[in-house]
Amino acid sequence: FLDEIGDISPLIQLKLLRVLQEYEYERVGDSVTRKANVRFIAATHRNLRERVEQGTFREDFYYRIRVYAIEMPALREHKADIVQLCDAFIDRLNRRTGKTIRQLSPEALNSLMDYCWPGNVRQLENAIEHAFVTCQDGSITLADLPGEIRSVRERQRECARAGDGPPMPWPPRRQRVSIEKLLGTLGECQGNQAEAARRLGIDRTTLWRRLKRQPPQS
Prior knowledge:
Elements: H1 10-22, E1 24-26, E2 33-35, H2 48-54, H3 59-65, H4 81-97, E3 103-104, H5 106-114, H6 120-134, E4 139-140, H7 147-161, H8 172-188, H9 193-200, H10 204-212
Parallel strand pairs: 3-4
Antiparallel strand pairs: 1-2
């Protein structure tokens, strides 16, 4: 697996091109030509077509590696995946560190959903690891998140206090019934969003969206 292949030098591109074309290579400091029987998988966040046009990426190498391309959308375009990704990262870090972090607070989750994620999934994973270091109980709060993510929610708080563009409410009847039932169930589950969503018969993405409509708790 060759990660960030768009950043490799022209010399390395040429050497890899030979491996892909001839299935041959020499080890460093060795003159013996060896056969390669491997399948390459490469990834990059660069636009390789643009780099070819700019002359920084070899066109012949580009077509060699682009036999079957999969375009991975940015995390900001698939924010519904954030809930499941966070669950997976929390579960993995619990096993690694011996901690028992159970969940994200509603405000912390809302902040993760509002953030633009220029670093995609790796940045999200790093944010959860950061929160594990600072979290002192079983729930990750807004204060546990990295500053660049936390500041988005803090700016929204300031705007809400100043009356600058508060969120649009739901229709009164829906808000009264749905929010009361949601918060009651969430309380019964001691803040466990996964369990609350299961009892309500909704997915966690729907749950966080409804919680997001609620004003921040002071």
